[in-house]
Amino acid sequence: MVQDYLERSEIEARQEIQIKPLDPRLQLAFCDQDLTTALESPAQPVGRVTVRVSCEGSTPWTVFVPAQVKLFRKVVVAIRPLKRTDVLSEDDVALVERDVGLLTQGYLTDMNQALGTRLTRSVMPDQVLAPVLVEMTEAIRKSDQVVISAKKGGINVRMPGEALSKGVIGEQIRVRNLSSNRVIRARVVGPGQVEVPM
């Protein structure tokens, strides 16, 4: 019953569950109702967990069943030593199955979350890449020539511009419209590409 309960995790992963045996001296009365189960700790059934099993019948009782839940997912790992500031390519990383319950700093599950990012510190081969280890690289540097796009419906207006600050994809930066010489705020959508609302 505890096994069935723990297998209902919302995390898509391969599971290994070890339930610790209860003390054989424990004498529990027969329960004349369906037993109830609830996760006592932690919030997600990963790592060391405790499941509360209760009988609400005519002779109520509760026991706490300890278990170990291992969740295995494919995560992004370094496949060779990498230095701080290296920009990650397909030659640097791979998807490898790991027990995510042990990854306290988090992890990346998609190669696209890592490719093109820059390392914030050095990593060793086989090290799992946590989100804190990577940062987006600049898509635009200060003084870059950019294309400013303004879209509305089927209309798309493009004009030349100059970046007045650096930026990563999704970030708002200041850009000088070279046609009107006005300074505007635009969102970086790609290398050398910014977008403004029309």
Automatic annotation (TrEMBL):
Primary subcellular site in the record, as a coarse category: periplasm
InterPro entries: Flagellar_FlgA (IPR039246), FlgA_N (IPR041231), SAF (IPR013974), SAF_FlgA (IPR017585)
Sequence ranges assigned to domain SAF in this UniProt record: 73-135
Database matches in Pfam families: ChapFlgA (PF13144), ChapFlgA_N (PF17656)
Cellular component annotations (GO), alphabetically ordered: periplasmic space
Top-level taxon: Bacteria
Cellular compartment(s): Periplasm
Keywords tagged on the record: Bacterial flagellum biogenesis, Cell projection, Cilium, Flagellum, Periplasm, Signal
Matches recorded under SMART domains: SAF
GO biological process terms on file: bacterial-type flagellum assembly
Described function: Involved in the assembly process of the P-ring formation. It may associate with FlgF on the rod constituting a structure essential for the P-ring assembly or may act as a modulator protein for the P-ring assembly.
Cross-referenced NCBIfam families: flgA_cterm
Family: Belongs to the FlgA family.
Name this polypeptide is given: Flagella basal body P-ring formation protein FlgA
